[in-house]
Write a structure and sequence with these properties.
CATH superfamily of the largest domain: ATPase, nucleotide binding domain
Number of domains: 2
Strand content: 15-25%
Distance between the termini: 49 Å
Radius of gyration: 22 Å
Largest sheet: 7 strands, mixed
Shape: globular
Oligomer: single chain
Number of helices: 19
Number of strands: 21
Mean pLDDT: 95
Low-confidence stretches: none
Helix content: 25-40%
Strand order of the largest sheet: 17-18-16-15-19-20-21
CATH class of the largest domain: Alpha Beta
Structural class: alpha+beta
C-alpha cells in the first residue's frame, strides 16, 4: 500500500486464545507503540456428548463487539486476527458453516496417526511438512472425518482465523503461517502439498488459496462496516498463527536468541531462515512452521500453563481455600526446589480434567508415583512440581533446538502470559544457565499490530525494525541465572 501520513496508525489486533480472546487497539508511530485492551471475553471448548467443540459463532460475536469498541474510541485503520492453530471450519458451496469446529483436544484423532502411517511414512510426512508429530494436527483431524457427511459436503476448509476473516470480508483464503501447521503444507515450496492430500484420500480441492502475512485481504463487508461503525476498513492478513505474531513481538536485538511463547501452550524454539528437516530433527519431534517475512519457526510444542490453570480450576471446584494463582505462586516460591519433577509433556495432561479422581492435580500425582518421585500432596507442592517440570522441559528443548540447528543461544526471550509468572521465568534462567528476558506479555497482539501497520504504510521495513520499536517502547525484566541447584540430575530423573 502507499505510505500514509506521519500520523500514528491505529488498528484492531484481535488475539484469540483457547481460554480467552482479546480485541486490542494498537497505535503505531515512528516512536510510538501502544496497546489498549478494549474487549476481553472468555473462551473454551464446549463438551457435548463426549465431543469438544468451539463456539465459533460466539467468538465472532465477541470480535464484532470488540471492533465496535475500537471504532467508538478512536480511529480504525485496519483489522487483523490471530488465533491458535490446526482447528478449522468446513463450508458448503454457499459459504455456510457445516457445523461447529471441533477442538484439537477432542479425542476423535486417537489412532489416526497409525492410520496415516499405513499410507505415508513418518519420515516422508516430515520431509514434506517438517511438522512435529502431534495427534491433533489438521491432517489427522481431516482423516478422522473421511466418510462423514460434513467432509463429503464441504467445498472449503478455513482455519479459524481465516474463517473469522471470511465472515468479516467475504474473501476465502489461508494465511501461510497457520497453513504451515496443518501437515498439508510443503515447508520447502510454501504451497499446499496436494499430492499428499490425494494419497490420503482427502478432498484437496477444499484447501483455499494461500496468502502472505501483511497482504490486504479486503475491506469489511458493508453490513459488517455498518455494524462496526466504520465502512471500508481493510482487513490485513497478519501472522494468523498466534505464535507467528508472538515471535514478531519478541524484542530481540541479537541473532543468538531463543524464544518461549508461554501461554496455554509453550512454543519453544528458534527463528531460522530455512527449515531443519534432518532425521535427527524428526526423531526429536521438532517442528518447522512458517513465520512472518519467510522465516521458519523451528520449535517444539511443550505443554504449557494449561496444566496449572486446569489444576487451579479443579481446586476451585473442590472449594479449597488459598488456591488463587497469586497465593499458589507465592507459596511455590518458598517450596523445596526440584523435590518432585515429572514429564510435563505426558499426553495424559492434554485433555481437560474431569472428576476428582481424574483431575489435573490427580494426574500430576500419578505421574510422580509412576516415576518414583515424592508425591506432591498440597496445591502449593503441585504448583511447584508443574513449574519445575516446565523449566526442565524448556531447558531440554532449547538445548536440543540449538544443537539440531547448529546455533548458539546466549539469551532466551520469554513472551506471552507466562512472562508475568516471575517464578517460572527465574526457574527457566536457572535451568538453562543463560539470562531470560521476560516480556512483553502481549507479544502476539503487538506482532499482529506491527504487521498491520507496515501493510498500511508504516516505516517498518523488516522484523529488526519492528523489534527495535518494541525495545524502545516496552520494558522487559531480566532474570540472571542462579547457581546452586543440580538441574542435570533433575533432568535425569525425568528421563528426558
Amino acid at each position: 500500500m502507499t505510505a500514509r501520513s506521519a500520523e500514528p496508525i491505529r488498528v484492531a489486533a484481535v488475539d484469540l486464545g483457547a481460554t480467552s480472546g482479546r480485541v486490542m487497539a494498537c497505535r503505531v508511530g515512528a516512536r510510538t507503540l501502544h496497546l489498549e485492551e478494549l474487549h476481553r471475553f472468555s473462551n473454551g471448548a464446549v463438551p457435548v456428548r463426549g465431543d469438544l467443540y468451539w463456539d465459533v459463532l460466539g467468538i465472532h460475536r465477541e470480535v464484532l463487539v470488540g471492533l465496535r469498541e475500537v471504532a467508538r474510541t478512536g480511529e480504525l485503520h485496519g483489522v487483523g486476527i490471530d488465533s491458535w492453530a490446526v482447528d478449522y471450519g468446513l463450508l458448503d458451496c454457499d459459504g455456510r458453516l457445516l457445523g461447529n469446529p471441533r477442538s484439537h483436544r477432542d479425542p476423535r484423532t486417537a489412532g489416526v496417526p497409525d492410520q496415516v502411517r499405513a499410507s505415508v511414512s513418518d519420515a516422508e510426512l516430515y520431509d514434506i511438512s517438517g511438522l512435529q508429530q502431534l495427534p491433533f494436527n489438521t491432517v489427522y483431524q481431516l482423516v478422522s472425518e473421511l466418510g462423514l457427511p460434513s467432509l463429503e459436503a464441504a467445498e472449503h476448509l478455513l482455519l479459524l482465523p481465516d474463517l473469522l476473516t471470511y465472515w468479516l470480508t467475504g474473501e476465502l483464503g489461508a494465511e501461510r503461517t497457520n497453513a504451515s501447521t496443518t501437515g498439508l503444507y510443503d515447508v520447502r515450496t510454501r504451497e499446499w502439498a496436494l499430492d499428499l492430500a490425494k494419497r490420503l484420500g482427502l478432498p484437496w480441492s477444499i484447501l483455499p488459496p494461500l496468502r502472505d502475512p501483511g497482504s490486504v485481504v479486503g475491506p469489511l463487508l458493508p453490513a459488517v462496516g455498518e455494524h462496526v461503525g466504520r465502512p471500508d476498513v481493510p482487513v490485513i492478513a497478519v501472522g494468523s498463527h498466534d505464535t507467528a505474531s508472538a515471535v514478531v513481538g519478541v524484542p530481540a536485538a541479537e541473532e543468538s536468541f531463543a524464544y518461549i511463547s508461554s501461554g496455554t501452550w509453550s512454543l519453544v524454539g528458534l527463528e531460522l531462515e530455512s527449515p531443519v528437516l534432518s532425521e535427527d530433527a524428526r526423531i526429536a519431534d521438532f517442528t518447522n512452521e512458517g513465520g512472518v517475512d519467510g522465516t521458519i519457526r523451528f520449535l517444539k510444542n511443550v505443554m504449557g500453563l494449561w496444566v496449572l490453570s486446569e489444576s487451579v480450576r479443579a481446586w476451585a471446584d473442590q472449594r479449597l481455600t488459598d488456591v488463587t494463582l497469586p497465593a499458589l505462586l507465592a507459596g511455590a516460591a518458598q517450596a523445596p526446589p526440584l523435590r518432585t519433577v515429572v514429564d510435563i509433556n505426558d499426553p495424559r495432561l492434554l485433555t481437560p480434567g474431569t472428576a476428582s479422581a481424574d483431575s489435573m492435580p490427580a494426574r500430576i500425582q500419578e505421574l510422580a508415583r509412576e516415576a518414583g518421585e515424592p508425591i506432591p500432596r498440597t496445591p502449593v507442592a503441585i504448583t511447584r512440581t508443574i513449574l519445575d517440570s516446565l523449566a526442565l522441559a524448556y531447558r531440554r528443548n532449547i538445548r536440543l533446538a540449538a544443537s539440531l540447528a547448529g546455533r548458539d543461544v546466549d539469551v532466551v526471550h520469554l513472551v506471552g502470559g507466562g512472562s508475568q509468572n516471575t517464578l517460572l521465568c527465574q526457574l527457566t534462567a536457572d535451568a538453562l544457565g543463560v539470562p531470560v528476558l521476560a516480556g512483553p506479555a502481549e507479544a502476539a497482539a503487538l506482532g499482529n499490530g506491527l504487521v498491520q501497520a507496515r501493510a498500511l504504510g508504516a516505516d517498518l521495513p523488516d522484523l529488526a525494525a519492528m523489534r527495535a520499536l518494541i525495545r524502545r517502547t516496552h520494558d522487559v525484566r531480566r532474570h540472571e541465572p542462579r547457581s546452586g541447584l543440580d538441574w542435570e540430575a533433575a533432568a535425569a530423573r525425568v528421563g528426558r
